[in-house]
Design a protein that fits this description.
351 residues; mainly alpha; 16 helices
């Protein structure tokens, strides 16, 4: 074969170089946009709109203007990356890699992957879609979804600095156990029928075993996945973040500490129920945890509150509603809430 003639599946060196340059330029543009979100949101809120920096309305608007582009960028970027990687792996290979040959192995691997994946609950959703789309068992996928926001490396560092290595270690261990056991429970309930139909349709539209794709086709398919999935969930993202922004600006720490500051048996479940409607990442809620403890809340109660905020946030549930049906969301909330409550009581007993 004449080397000067390009195969339809093997682009020429020049065209491949152009594609790589475009990918690099797009990645740099993504990073630049992501780095500008915070200062732009602050400028729009406190300079252009002239809202007081410490006012509830100002905090809510700044939170909303920051989180909307942040989550959309994370959604688009992660969906593109996962979709691109999926073109190299069939559903059968992915299931074999992460599903495990024995029950629980896949849950452990997924939970450990969640630990090293620095995403909040809302931005972990596109990874959840990608896992389900790839044919990974539902219970294994939930182990990742739970571990990714709950066990946060920034939170580990902050907990270590505030409370020492024992508390940080217990936080990691409890989050890991919750993610593994909850995923196994959800997997055994066989609730695949409660995943929205369009997710399974995405799975059936995936790559075919043995199919050979060139770089242009891989990129085109990845971009199509971004448009399709973001187009289906963006409104839920906006609604969820709007709810979280309102709570972020208008719910004071004093209202939380009045419930969790008492050493009563009901303080842990009350803290979990109180944390579910709120929205923050682990790093953002740890200062609240510290303030609550200064006001008399026990460590187990405060950490249970933190885990419910980052692992069961209302905005996350609103976004999940686009891909999961209510019975599966109810089971997810029930299993995780029960596990967090038990963890809170355990911390209060040990420390």
């Amino acid at each position: 074969m004449d080397p000067s003639v390009s195969s339809p599946l093997l682009p020429s060196r020049n065209s491949a170089a152009r594609i790589y340059l475009l990918i690099g330029a797009a990645a740099l543009a993504w990073l630049a946009a992501y780095s500008l979100i915070q200062p732009l949101a602050d400028w729009l809120t406190f300079s252009a709109l002239a809202l007081p920096r410490n006012s509830p309305l100002g905090q809510s608007i700044a939170f909303f203007l920051y989180d909307i582009p942040k989550i959309i960028l994370l959604l688009g970027g992660m969906i593109f990356l996962i979709s691109f990687l999926r073109t190299f792996f069939s559903a059968e290979r992915t299931r074999a890699l992460l599903g495990g040959k024995r029950e629980g192995v896949g849950n452990v691997l997924a939970a450990m992957l969640g630990i090293v994946t620095p995403f909040c609950s809302c931005s972990a959703v596109p990874l959840f879609i990608g896992f389900v789309e790839s044919g990974i068992p539902l219970g294994v996928t939930f182990s990742f979804l739970i571990a990714a926001p709950t066990i946060n490396e920034v939170a580990v560092v902050m907990l270590f600095g505030l409370f020492g290595w024992k508390v940080a270690g217990l936080y990691i261990a409890s989050g890991l156990v919750i993610a593994i056991l909850a995923g196994m429970v959800i997997g055994r309930l066989k609730m695949e029928r409660y995943v929205e139909d369009f997710v399974w349709q995405l799975q059936r539209q995936g790559g075919v075993e043995g199919e050979k794709l060139d770089l242009q086709i891989r990129i085109r398919r990845s971009w199509e996945s971004v448009k399709e999935i973001v187009g289906k969930v963006w409104l839920y993202v906006v609604i969820g973040i709007a709810v979280g922004a309102g709570i972020h600006g208008y719910v004071p720490v004093s209202a939380l500490s009045s419930i969790m500051g008492k050493q009563a048996w009901w303080s842990v479940p009350a803290a979990v129920l109180l944390g579910i409607p709120l929205y923050s990442n682990a790093a953002g809620v740890i200062p609240i945890v510290s303030a609550l403890m200064e006001k008399g809340a026990s460590l187990g109660t405060a950490l249970a509150f933190m885990m419910s905020v980052v692992g069961l946030s209302l905005p996350e549930l609103i976004i999940l509603r686009r891909i999961l049906k209510p019975p599966l969301i109810a089971v997810f909330v029930g299993v995780i809430a029960a596990a967090i409550i038990l963890t809170g009581y355990l911390f209060n007993l040990i420390i």
